[in-house]
Each structure stands twice: as structure tokens, then as C-alpha cells.
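Usage

Read records sequentially. Each one opens with the input sequence:
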Amino acid sequence: MIRRLAILALALAMTISVVWLLVTPQTLAALKDALVNADWRPLGFAFVLSAVVQWLRAWRFAVMTTATLGLPGRRIIRIAFQLNFFNFALPFRLGELSYPILMRRAFGQPLLRSTGILLAARLLDLTSVTAVLLAAAATLGLAGNAGGNLLLAAGSIACVMAPAIFTLAIGRHGKGALKSPFLAGIAGRLAPGFTEPHKKSVRLLALALSYAIWLTFAVLAMLCANAVTDGISPAVALLGAAASNLAFALPVNGIAGLGPSQAAWVLAVTRTGVPWESAVVSAMALYAVTLCGAIIFGGIATLSETKWRADSASRPDTR
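and closes with the structure output:
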């Protein structure tokens, strides 16, 4: 009990600190104006895209779980929406712990294997979001000189190539590409489909879906930003979205996801010359849309699971 209260207190302190940093009389006035003058059509489209992002995540989970190229089924889509909800509802990334439990309850999958698949997915997220961040920073010239921007671009290319090279190496050599028999054995238990040579297309699709997820999220962020402010270009929105998602992945988060993610967006986009008030307003618009998507779609997924379980329990056992 004391540990839970301490975690809650730290999360609350994180949220209060970020709100104190971001909110000023000027930003409060800008937020009020944004509520009155916002273009709700792109915000509505962004809300729909928040569901598309989770569907793409569900597809990637399905690909990594079954080692096939098929589209996701209803149960794994529901799990993706529930995982997103728990990541907002629980502080300090504790929501990630729900994935192995949900997969075991829905499919009987061993906890170790589902944990390994989740870890692999998060590593793909890390490389793809970092690649997007560095590419956007290079495009915007944030390094300040040609040599620095070239290094940013090279870093972005490296983040794209590293998982692709690993995928091709596994595809050619199977577990032997992991050199160490110990590592190969662990990989085989965590994600067996990913260590088989003939599953190269599965790994490439998982990698492609990772970029599809984050590029879709970047479009979502751009729609949110331009619905409430002027002058945030696609490259700036891409930079802000990548910074925001990297911060959200940190094991230090606030209440209902309000914390480092919004601060990272503001700090990133203000580096490009966006006024502080516009940066805060756009960060809050993105937060509101993603939070509403997590609550509404996650709630629908949970209610549908409850109904499915109730229906299953009411059916006679015909075995």
C-alpha cells in the first residue's frame, strides 16, 4: 500500500511540475482562444487516426505472435486498445505489464513469450521513432551547421538500417546469426517465429508496420497542431511527435499521461521558432485527442471483452 501511494505521489508530482512549467497567464489565454476558435474537423479526423494507430499496433502484435502475414483478429485488436488505455491510466509505464496478462487470458500464451514479443515491439518503436526524430531535426537544420545536420541524417539512416540488417541476417542464418547459443535459445523461446530463416517476410512486415504506426501518429499530431494554431509545418509536427513519444516511453510518467510527453513536444517545437504559447496549445490538443481515444476505444474494448466473457459463460458446454 505504501509503495502504491509513493508511486502515485511521484506521478502526481511529475504532472504538477509539468503543468507549472507549461502553464502561464499567456498560455491560459491561448488555450481559451483555442477552445473557441479550434477547427474541429481535423481534430475529429485525428481522433479516428488514434484508432488506426492502435489497429496497426494490433496487426504488428498479430504478425509477431503468429509469425504469419494475416490481418489482426478481434481479440488482439481489443488487447491493443486495452494496452493503450492502461498505459495512460497507470503511471510509470506500469500499463505495459497488462499485455502479457491479457495475452495469456485471451490466447493462453506463456507470459515469457508475450513479454519477449512486447520487448521486441518496443525496440522496433525505439529505432523507428529515433529515426524519425533525427530525420526531422536534420531537415529543419537544428544542428546549426551542415556537418551537424549531416550527422543527424546519418544517425537517422543508421536507425533505419540496423533493424533491417538484423532482419536480413536472421533470415539468412536463423538463430546462428545470434552467435551466442545462450542468446539464440532465449530468442527462440521469446519469439520463435522471428528466429526461423523462412520468416524473413514476417520480420520485414513488423518493421514496416513500426514506421506506419509512427508516421500515422505524426499525421495525427500535425492535424491536432494545425487545428488550434498556425505555422506548425509537417516537419516540425514530425519532430514534436517523435520527441513526445520518446518521452512517453520513459519509465517516468504523470497522471493520465500528462507529464514529460507534453514537455518534450513543447521543448522540441520551440527549438524551431514556434512561440511558447502555440507550442503549449498544440501539445494540449494532441494530448486531449490521444487521451480521449485511449479512454473511449479502450473502454469499448473492455466492455466488449466483458460481454464476450458473459456470453461464453452462458453457453452450455458442448464438448
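Summary fields computed downstream for this record:
- The chain has twelve helices and no strands.
- Confidence is low (pLDDT under 50) at residues 173-177.
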